[in-house]
Amino acid sequence: MKAIKLGRTGLKVKSLGFGGIPIQRVSEEAAVDVVRRCYDLGLNYYDTARGYTTSEERIGKALEDVRERVILATKSHQRTAEGIKRELEISLRNLRTDYIDVYQLHNVQTEEQWSQVKAPGGALEAVEEAKEQGKINHVSVTSHSPDLAVEMIKTGLFETMMIPYNYLTTKPADELLPTCKKLNVGTIIMKPFGGGAFSNANTALKYVLSNPDCDLVIPGMMSVAELEENYGVWMGDHSLTDKERRLIERDKERLGDQFCRSCNYCQPCPQGIPISTILRTESQVLRRMGWSERRVEAVKEAKEKLETCIHCGECESRCPYNLPIQELLPRAMQSLWDLMESRTIPEP
Ligand code: SF4
Ligand code: SF4
After folding, report:
1. Domains held by the chain: number
2. Which CATH number covers residue 63?
3. Strand partners, 186
């Protein structure tokens, strides 16, 4: 059933995996249910991270009794050996296991971070040591920078590479994904739905699944309904119809490349400004859900917060998509405010 070999890890995985970010946002019971349903459907790759609050614990709880039959992947933002040692022990405890199949350095994004992790006393030192001790089976990395990702995989240090790829973030397809194939590095695709920005999730998933350079795609899923929908797409034919190609072109025109992917890497804002809420509400939220009293209040509160921006630029230095956030925020708020006053819902 659509199983592939994940690069030189040799792991046999179903090419649809489970992305563990959204299960932080539901109850523990609902989270355990969706993970377990995923297992029951035969999917075997589960991705989480130390940084995803309760996600590791919930996946650990759901899969403890079937540990040997699943592949667990987690990651850490720590850049030092000491930090990795500390976080790895927490991950092992949370996931209720004594080994991690795929352990990833989380979002190595800049040359500075890359130098830090490979320096003496850096994260890689601890990861290699943990591998010798049998606590980690495969060493991997994630990044939002395709250029740096190419540089990193060429070192031969990593067995898989996780990168965002979708029909509006296509750069990985130019060099990174083919280079991974050539070097037998497994490719793991995150953000297939562009953080929820796209008109049709099924089309977005098919777009990724139809690229033969993508080994494994891990959409974030927080309900059984979402999981079953993705599963249905994965089981079907992945070739795009003419109608779907037209929809992709329309989304490209509508969103351009300066759209917020809702990753929240720009947080914390020292002023508590809800950056992704302001940037996404008009183009991504209203069209699907319309106005509600709660949303009106949220927009009013966001406007007040935005007025306190001290222009420190911290958000921009953290945005992996290099969005000019300080320029985009007032424009997005003005447009949103105008829509709110007339209670208009933007056209698809
Ligand atoms: S520039 Fe404004 S929005 Fe960005 S982090 Fe600073 S205060 Fe927050
Ligand atoms: S502004 Fe950038 S960092 Fe913040 S949520 Fe959007 S895409 Fe992510």
Report:
1. 2
2. 3.20.20.100
3. 160
- 32 & 175 share domain: yes
306 in ligand 1 pocket by Cβ < 6 Å? no
Question: Residue 269: nearest ligand to its CA?
Answer: 1
Is the Cβ atom of 323 under 6 angstroms away from ligand 2? yes
Of 219, 228, 211, 217, which Cα lies nearest the Cα of 34? 228
Indicate the DSSP class of residue 21. S
182 with 305, same domain: the answer is no
**Residue with CA nearest ligand 1 atom 4:** 315
The answer to the question of residue 258 being in a domain is: no
pLDDT in tens, 87-126: 999 999 999 999 999 999 999 988 999 999 999 999 999 9
pLDDT digits (tens, 9 = 90+) for 236-261: 999 999 999 999 999 888 888 788 88
The answer to the question of residue 256 being in a domain is no
Per DSSP (E only), the strands in the chain are 3-5, 12-14, 18-19, 45-47, 71-76, 100-105, 136-142, 160-164, 186-190, 216-217
CA 59 vs. chain centroid, Å, equals 16
> Ligand 2, atom 8: nearest CA belongs to which residue?
263
Q: Which two tokens stand for residue 169?
A: 């973030």
Structure tokens at 342: 């007339």
Identify whether residues 217 and 286 lie together within a single domain: no
CA 274 to centroid of ligand 1, rounded, Å: 10
- The parts of the chain modelled with pLDDT lower than 70 are 1, 347-348
- Point out the ligand nearest to the CA of residue 284: 2
C-alpha radius of gyration, the chain, whole number: 20
Domain housing 90: 3-248
Q: Which two tokens stand for residue 103?
A: 């352990």
Determine the Cα–Cα distance for residues 252 and 126; give it in Å rounded to an integer.
Answer: 42
Q: How far does residue 311's CA lie from ligand 1's centre (Å)?
A: 5
* Cα 325 to ligand 1 centre (Å): 8
Confirm or reject: Cβ of 327 under 6 Å from ligand 1: no
**Count of CA atoms in the C-beta half-sphere (13 A) of 307:** 6
- Facing residues of 45 across strands? 71
Q: Let me know if residue 235 belongs to a domain.
A: yes
